[in-house]
Each structure stands twice: as structure tokens, then as C-alpha cells.
DNA sequence: CTAGGGTTAG
């Protein structure tokens, strides 16, 4: 901020030194506006005789601020450009990911007979490293550097060449250059370490580090970051912990980037506590530090903590960056916090980062997961560019609400557009959409042809989807055959899908088989036991239902209590079945009684098949009328004004009777009701649900 | 006045 103020201060004299200082300040402020002002001042005060070094300053100014047009104009308007102006231009263009202008400027200076120096070559290599790898530009720059005598002796030039060979995928050439380097410094080792990381070979990063140490070298900040990064990627927890000790001894942990990479490392190794210790101990933090801490919580099930770290960052004066907003949005998706997500969308718009592809994709994902499909569509259709993750998020959004038609349509668009090939996640989402939307034939066809059409072999998740798909449609036996023909061991989700289907269609015997497999794979899970017990109960096989319950008790498995919650005026109201503790219990009970008679008048019959024990019908009826989701709905109907959709969350699947009742209630009282359970969304409107009773 | 290797996200 100080530098911005300096740049804004008027330059009174035509003193070139003062002007140069103003240009430096404009660069530091990273503000194109101040940069243009500095340029205008230079032209006004010094034209027509601008000293050569000021011209180089101006080229540098525009290049550093990433204003390619003005930078090129400033260079072109210079009657006698120097190596320095050209190098500044090349450097800026390379830094901002514009290899083409950088390399053509390099060619232009050669044509003018200007001799590239030891500053020029590193920037030229940097540009060559990000040029299309098919072009042979990198080796050409290499031979020039040889001819001008900067290779192999100049350390800066050779390190830049090394990095270029790695980044353009010429591994053999890179390794040979590395072997032949006479001055193999830390930066050379770092280039090996970081490029191994980029190519997904963390073990090689660690090995290169030990190579550096054996050669008697000392790691610097970059080496340390790369090492932690490798440990994070490969979850080498104890190696990273040992390294942490060493880093502290060297005093390198005082560097912000090093500490950031430690926070990230501990987070990725599922040690949020240790991440927090590092974060709390940091004397200086930057926006990346806050972001690493948010991500550490978010990726370890600490959505609330992640969000509160974000709020702390904002209070500490951090601007919301694209990194931060996209990270926090995933926590909103996890919390199902549509309101929080909307608020973040507004933040993104205000900070002009809502079109960033990461942010926009995160928005599509968040809206899709939080039940705001129209908002997801709007973001999706308005974004300037899309990539694989964006498409997957949109298809996934449709899958969540079971809109198979639109999921298939978007998938079709993706294929037709031809820029992005689908991956296995895309196909999981499409199959899941078909399954939930009841497009059995289309889904099954896609499953059978996905390898031929897209070169994606069905993996375990695809099998789980297709078992679900067939199972929901009442083809449990066919699903079972597919399971038996699987080339890999069926997972929990595969057997779970079969069990769910058997429960849905009362295929008790096959369900028993699936349940037993599940008990083997995950003996502590309560959900499967409950499902099997309920299945016996609905078949009237009460003795077996009770046996399963007893077994659960013996093994010490507790059923997770069903909970539903609803947010009203920023307060979360949580309900459990038969809950009477809520402050508005009397009003809730009164409304439920009234609804019950309205429902019966409308032709609703309670579905008591899943009431847990062998009770008399009437008792079962009152039992299902105290389910947590019904209590939450009654509360919502009392508090939330007409016209506003009522959004309810549940930690387990919505119960069959509640589902039936909600359809009636949505029609009787003319309200939109949206239930998000642990499986999917249900949109109730005018006696119907978006799932078409197929879930 | 110009230079190499770097931390965070969907």
C-alpha cells in the first residue's frame, strides 16, 4: 500500500531518477492503473528525449504488470532498444505464461544483432519450457547458449535449460545435462525435485534430496518445500515428521512458504492437529497460509473449523482470493450450506473472481450438492471456459437430484464439444444419474460400451452404479450376476447397492447374502444391520428382525440415531425422533395432529412397514409421525413464511413413510419442501417428488 | 533497468 501511495504522488521534476522510482513503485503496487499513470507521466515530462534506461524501465513496468499490448508498444516505439529492454520483455511474458511473444521477441533481438546475455537466456529457457512441447524451440535456445558460451559453465543458464528439458518432457536429455553440469548447485537439485513432483513421482523427489545431501549440498527454502510436498503427496508421515525436526534446527521453518508446506503436509497426512500447531506457531502468515489451514480442515471432515478459519482470515484483513474462495466453497458443499455458498458467491462476484475456472467449477459443484440446481446451471452456462472438473460437477449436480435426462444431455454436449474427454468420474456421475432417474436401459448401455467408446474400463465405482441401476429397476438377479462376474473384489458400495435394491423390492433372501458380505467387510457399520433388520420386519419376519438387532447389541454396534435439522434465522434446529425438547414442541405437535387428519382426508395411508418392532398398527402410526424429518418439517411450516422453500437435512436416508407424507403435505399446504438426506436430494412440490419415487 | 528452482484450490 505504501508503494501505491508513492506512485500516486505527483512527480514534480523531470528528474529521470524520480521517474524511475515512480515506475518501481507502480510495479510493486501491481496496479495496471498506476502503471499507466507512470507511463503517461514519463511521456509527458520527458518526451521526446526519453533516456534509454527509462525506456527499459517502462518495458519492464508493463511486462511485470502483465500488460502485453502496452509492453510490446513500448518496446516497438524504442528507436534503439537494448538487451535490457528485450530481456525485461521476455522475462515478463515468460513469467505470465505467454511463451509466443517472449520467443518472438527473442528472435527479433537476434535479428537486430543484439547479443543475448546471461540474464536473457534464463528467461528464454523459461519461455521455451512453457511453449508447446512439440516445437523444438528449447533445444534451439540451448544451442545458442552453447554458441554464446554460457553453457555449460553459467549456473543460472544451465539450471534454466535443465528445467526446460524436464518441463517439455525430454527426461533423458534433462538427466544427461544434469550429469554433465560442472556447477551443480542447489537450484539444479531443486529442479530435479520439483519436476519429479510435477510428474507425480514423489519418491524421486525424496531421492534427489538425499542426492543433494550426499553431494555435500545444503537444502534451501525451495528444496524443503518440495520435500514436504513429496511427503504430502505420498503420505510419508514419519519421514516428513523427522524432516520437520531438521527444518526447525536449520531455522528454515521461519520462512512462510516452508511453514505453509508443513501445514499442507500435515493436513494431507490427516494430522489436522499438527497442522494447526504449525499454523498457530507462525509469526508471519500470508494468504496461502490461511488457505492451507482451511484446506487441512476441509479435507479432514472439519467443515465448520475450515469455515471459521476463513472468517478469521477475513477479520485479519485477508482479501478473498480465487484459491481461498474455491477452497471454502467445498466446505459449503460439505456442510450443505446453501446460504453460506450463496454468500461466498457474492464475495466472489465482488472480488471479480467468479469467472475463474476453479471458483466457477466450485460454485457449480456447491450449488449442485446443496440443492440449487438452477444456480448451478446459471453459473455453468455463463462461465467463459469449462474443463473436466466443471463438466463433472454439472453432471454430478443433475445426478444428485436424479435428473437423468439433463445429465445425459450435458454429457452429450461434453462429447460433442470435443475439447474435454470424459474420465472415470464423469461416467460414475452419468451412471448414477441414470440409476436415480430410472433410465435403466440408457445407463446399462453406457456401462457396456464405455470401454469401447471412451477407453475407460469399468472400475469398482462403475460396478456399484450399475448394480444400483439394475437393482432399483427390480433386476436384482441380473445385478447379482454382474457382481459375480466382476474382475475385482466387490466393495462395500457394490454389496450396499444390492442390499438397498433388495430392501426396496422385498427380495429378502438375496438381501441376506448381500448383508452377510457387508458384515464381513464392515462389521461395525450400523446402517447395514438396520437395513437387514428392517427388511425382515417388512417381510413380517419379526423373529429374524429381532435377531439382527440382538446381534448388533452383542457385537456392540450402535445405530446412529436419525437426526434432521433445519436452519432458520441463522440458527440450526436439530430434531431426533420422538423429540419433545424443542421450545416450540406444543405448536409442532398441534400442527402434526392437524396435518395427520388432513393427510388422511387426502387419501394418505401411513406406511409403517419399517417401524422397528412388532408393534400394533396404531402404535406404529404414531411412531412414524414422530420421525425427526416430520418434526423438522412442522417446525419449518410454522416459522418459515409462505413462498419460501423449506430445506431439511437428514443424516440418514429419508424414511419411506416420511417421503410419502411429504408429497401429500407439499400439495395440501402448497409449499416446496427440499430434503437432503445422506444419499441425495428430494424436491417435493404439488404432491410429487423429484425422485419420482425411485430412490 | 533484465535472471534459474517454490507453498494453496475445483
UniProtKB/TrEMBL annotation:
BP-aspect Gene Ontology terms: RNA modification
GO molecular function annotations of the record: RNA binding; zinc ion binding
Superkingdom in the source lineage: Eukaryota
Pfam families linked to this entry: DYW_deaminase, E_motif, PPR, PPR_2
The PPR repeat ranges on this chain: 82-116, 154-188, 286-320, 387-421
Residues annotated as domain DYW: 603-695
PROSITE patterns in UniProt: PPR (PS51375)
Keywords linked to the UniProt accession: Repeat, Transit peptide
Gene3D superfamilies: Tetratricopeptide repeat domain (1.25.40.10)
UniProt-listed InterPro entries: DYW_dom (IPR032867), E_motif (IPR046848), PPR_At4g14850-like_plant (IPR046960), PPR_rpt (IPR002885), TPR-like_helical_dom_sf (IPR011990)
This protein's name: DYW domain-containing protein
Amino acid at each position: 500500500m505504501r508503494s501505491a501511495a508513492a506512485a500516486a504522488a505527483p512527480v514534480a521534476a523531470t528528474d529521470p531518477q524520480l521517474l524511475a522510482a515512480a515506475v518501481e513503485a507502480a510495479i510493486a503496487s501491481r496496479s495496471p492503473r498506476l502503471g499507466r499513470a507512470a507511463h503517461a507521466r514519463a511521456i509527458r515530462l520527458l518526451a521526446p528525449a526519453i533516456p534509454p534506461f527509462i525506456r527499459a524501465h517502462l518495458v519492464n513496468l508493463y511486462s511485470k504488470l502483465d500488460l502485453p499490448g502496452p509492453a510490446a508498444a513500448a518496446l516497438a516505439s524504442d528507436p534503439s532498444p537494448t538487451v535490457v529492454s528485450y530481456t525485461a520483455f521476455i522475462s515478463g511474458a515468460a513469467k505470465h505464461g505467454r511463451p509466443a511473444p517472449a520467443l518472438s521477441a527473442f528472435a527479433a533481438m537476434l535479428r537486430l544483432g543484439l547479443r543475448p546475455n546471461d540474464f536473457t537466456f534464463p528467461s528464454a529457457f523459461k519461455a521455451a519450457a512453457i511453449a508447446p512441447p512439440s516445437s523444438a524451440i528449447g533445444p534451439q535456445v540451448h544451442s545458442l547458449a552453447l554458441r554464446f558460451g554460457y553453457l555449460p559453465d553459467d549456473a543460472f543458464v544451465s539450471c534454466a535449460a535443465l528445467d526446460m528439458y524436464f518441463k517439455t518432457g525430454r527426461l533423458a536429455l534433462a538427466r544427461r545435462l544434469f550429469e554433465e553440469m560442472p556447477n551443480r548447485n542447489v537450484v539444479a537439485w531443486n529442479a530435479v525435485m520439483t519436476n519429479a513432483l510435477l510428474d507425480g513421482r514423489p519418491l524421486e523427489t525424496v531421492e534427489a534430496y538425499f542426492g543433494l545431501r550426499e553431494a555435500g549440498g545444503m537444502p534451501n527454502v525451495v528444496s524443503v518445500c518440495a520435500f514436504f510436498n513429496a511427503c504430502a503427496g505420498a503420505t510419508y508421515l514419519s519421514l516428513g515428521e523427522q524432516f520437520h525436526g531438521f527444518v526447525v534446527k536449520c531455522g528454515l521453518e521461519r520462512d512462510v512458504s516452508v511453514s505453509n508446506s508443513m501445514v499442507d503436509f500435515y493436513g494431507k497426512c490427516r494430522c489436522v492437529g499438527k497442522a494447526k500447531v504449525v499454523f498457530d506457531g507462525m509469526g508471519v502468515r500470508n494468504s496461502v497460509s490461511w488457505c492451507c489451514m482451511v484446506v487441512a480442515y476441509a479435507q479432514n471432515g472439519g467443515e465448520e473449523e475450515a469455515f471459521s478459519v476463513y472468517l478469521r482470515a477475513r477479520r485479519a484483513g485477508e482479501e478473498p482470493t480465487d484459491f481461498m474462495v474455491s477452497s471454502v466453497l467445498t466446505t459449503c458443499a460439505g456442510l450443505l450450506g446453501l446460504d453460506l455458498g450463496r454468500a461466498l458467491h457474492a464475495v466472489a462476484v465482488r472480488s471479480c473472481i467468479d469467472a475463474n475456472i476453479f471458483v466457477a467449477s466450485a460454485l457449480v459443484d456447491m450449488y449442485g450438492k446443496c440443492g440449487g440446481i438452477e444456480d448451478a446451471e446459471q453459473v455453468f452456462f455463463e462461465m467463459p471456459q469449462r474443463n473436466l472438473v466443471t463438466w463433472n460437477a454439472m453432471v454430478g449436480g443433475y445426478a444428485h437430484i436424479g435428473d437423468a435426462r439433463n445429465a445425459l444431455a450435458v454429457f452429450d454436449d461434453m462429447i460433442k464439444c470435443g475439447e474435454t474427454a470424459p474420465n472415470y468420474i464423469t461416467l460414475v456421475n452419468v451412471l448414477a444419474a441414470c440409476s436415480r432417474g430410472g433410465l435403466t436401459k440408457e445407463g446399462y448401455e453406457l456401462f457396456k460400451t464405455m470401454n469401447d467408446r471412451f477407453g475407460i474400463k469399468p472400475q469398482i465405482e462403475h460396478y456399484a452404479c450399475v448394480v444400483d441401476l439394475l437393482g432399483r429397476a427390480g433386476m436384482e438377479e441380473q445385478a447379482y450376476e454382474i457382481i459375480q462376474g466382476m474382475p475385482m473384489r466387490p466393495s462395500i458400495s457394490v454389496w450396499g447397492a444390492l442390499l438397498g435394491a433388495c430392501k426396496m423390492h422385498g427380495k429378502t433372501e438375496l438381501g441376506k447374502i448381500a448383508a452377510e458380505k457387508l458384515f464381513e467387510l464392515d462389521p461395525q457399520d450400523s446402517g447395514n444391520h438396520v437395513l437387514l433388520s428392517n427388511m425382515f420386519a417388512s417381510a413380517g419376519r419379526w423373529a429374524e428382525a429381532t435377531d439382527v438387532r440382538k446381534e448388533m447389541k452383542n457385537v456392540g454396534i450402535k445405530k446412529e440415531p436419525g437426526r434432521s435439522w433445519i436452519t432458520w434465522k441463522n440458527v440450526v434446529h436439530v430434531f431426533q425422533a420422538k423429540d419433545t425438547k424443542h421450545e416450540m414442541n406444543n405448536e409442532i405437535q398441534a400442527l402434526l395432529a392437524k396435518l395427520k387428519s388432513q393427510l388422511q382426508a387426502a387419501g394418505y395411508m401411513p406406511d409403517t412397514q419399517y417401524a422397528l418392532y412388532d408393534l400394533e398398527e396404531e402404535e406404529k402410526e404414531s411412531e412414524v409421525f414422530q420421525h425427526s424429518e416430520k418434526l423438522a418439517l412442522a417446525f419449518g411450516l410454522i416459522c418459515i413464511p409462505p413462498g419460501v422453500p423449506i430445506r431439511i437435512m437428514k443424516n440418514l436416508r429419508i424414511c419411506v413413510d416420511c417421503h410419502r407424507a411429504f408429497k401429500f403435505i407439499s400439495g395440501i399446504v402448497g409449499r416446496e419442501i427440499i430434503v437432503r438426506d445422506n444419499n441425495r436430494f428430494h424436491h417435493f412440490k404439488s404432491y410429487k417428488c423429484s425422485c419420482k419415487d425411485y430412490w
